[in-house]
Write a structure and sequence with these properties.
This protein is of the alpha/beta class. The protein is built from twelve helices and 16 strands. The model has no long low-confidence stretch (mean pLDDT 95). The protein binds NADPH dihydro-nicotinamide-adenine-dinucleotide phosphate.
């Protein structure tokens, strides 16, 4: 059995969906209530591969909200993640993806030091961040969507916002090794990590967001921002392809400009309907088939019986592992979302 640990994008979003999911007692509550709410299994899932194989899974809502980080409720945030992991393990789940901020909190606050959660000893090999598949899917979105929008990759300038992150660095490695791209612009706040990445790649220009955006034909957003940034589409190149892989979204602006195309980044579409209700609440256009690539990674590991933390730690994703997960992604009927 596979598992997905997820969370909602804001307190407002959480209050809205609590009622829909049959938890009216959560709907009128503020952040303090969510800080003390325990994890819940809120969906049972069946996925059928195009090979005919069927697997079962469960969705664990951690009750974490990004506002907990913004208001420095760090202890509550970290408790949410380890409690959700213990909950998944207690329910016998073999491999569980840590969606959205779950893996970022796990890494940033060194939660591998908290192995004992009440009577559960966490077995970390039962969890994956799902970031290898996410990075692979974002690269495929770049490669396949660019020509759709009249962008020639060989001449294109690609800005990666969040370049030094787990997903961002993997995207840079792939674009450097596997694709003929014009120029890479590397964006993040910590200069030392940017310089290390630039040295590893042997290329790439380090830039501020405001300097990079007007130069980019493609912008890959994979920064871990609790709230999206506003951008003025008038400052962007035309055409410009924006691939927003953040959860919550890195872009706060709803861009309405005929030559600026915004793709939901790190999202896959399955070839067959998935039996679940959970993707309705995160506003996918086709909720029965579209999902986060990190969640799809735990499904792929279950299909292949690769019971291992395939994606774990920070900045260790290799191009070879991206290819490996990419092959089984295609085999079981997942493809990158390409419609803006
Ligand atoms: P990491 O924490 O590993 O990396 C985040 C990156 O963003 C770092 O380079 C960080 O560098 C940079 N960053 C953070 N804040 C800012 C800022 N204000 N301006 C510029 N750069 C910034 O995160 P991940 O790679 O694990 O995840 C990235 C995003 O992808 C998250 O939003 C996550 O929720 C989402 N995600 C999506 C998935 C999917 O299936 N679609 C799956 C998993 C994650 P620095 O701190 O130096 O600025």
């Amino acid at each position: 059995m596979f598992g997905l640990i997820g969370h909602l994008t804001s307190l407002e979003h959480a209050q809205l969906v609590a009622r829909d999911l049959g938890y009216p007692e959560y709907a009128d509550q503020g952040l303090d209530f969510w800080c003390s709410a325990p994890p819940q299994i809120v969906d049972d899932i069946t996925v059928t591969s195009i090979t005919g194989q069927k697997i079962q899974g469960k969705y664990v809502e951690s009750c974490f909200l990004p506002e907990m980080l913004a208001t420095r409720r760090i202890k509550a945030a970290t408790r949410k993640i380890v409690n959700a992991m213990a909950h998944a393990q207690k329910h016998g789940i073999n491999i569980t993806a840590l969606g959205g901020f779950s893996s970022i909190i796990f890494e940033n606050f060194n939660l591998n030091q908290i192995q004992q959660v009440r009577n559960v000893t966490l077995e970390f090999e039962r969890f994956t961040t799902g970031n290898t598949h996410t990075a692979y899917i974002i690269c495929k979105q770049v490669e396949q969507a660019a020509p759709q929008y009249g962008i020639d990759l060989a001449k294109a300038t690609i800005a990666v916002c969040g370049a030094t992150g787990d997903i961002g660095s993997a995207v840079c490695r792939w674009l450097n090794a596997r694709t003929d791209v014009g120029e890479l612009l590397l964006i993040a706040r910590n200069q030392e990590r940017l310089q290390d990445l630039q040295a590893e790649l042997g290329r790439g220009k380090i830039m501020d967001l405001s300097e990079a955006l007007p130069q980019a034909d493609i912008i890959v957003w994979v920064a871990s921002m609790p709230k999206g940034v506003e951008i003025d589409p008038a400052t962007l190149k035309k055409p410009c392809l924006l691939i927003d892989g953040g959860y919550p979204k890195n872009l706060a602006t709803k861009i309405q400009s005929p030559d600026v195309f915004v793709l939901n980044g790190g999202i896959v579409e399955h070839s067959l309907d998935i039996d679940w209700k959970i993707m309705n609440i995160v506003n996918m256009d086709v909720p029965a088939r579209q999902l986060f690539a990190c969640f799809a990674e735990s499904m792929l590991l279950e299909f292949e019986k690769w019971y291992t933390n395939f994606s774990w730690g920070r900045n260790r994703i290799t191009v070879e592992k991206m290819e490996q997960i990419g092959q089984v992604s295609v085999k079981h009927g997942f493809r990158p979302l390409l419609v803006a």
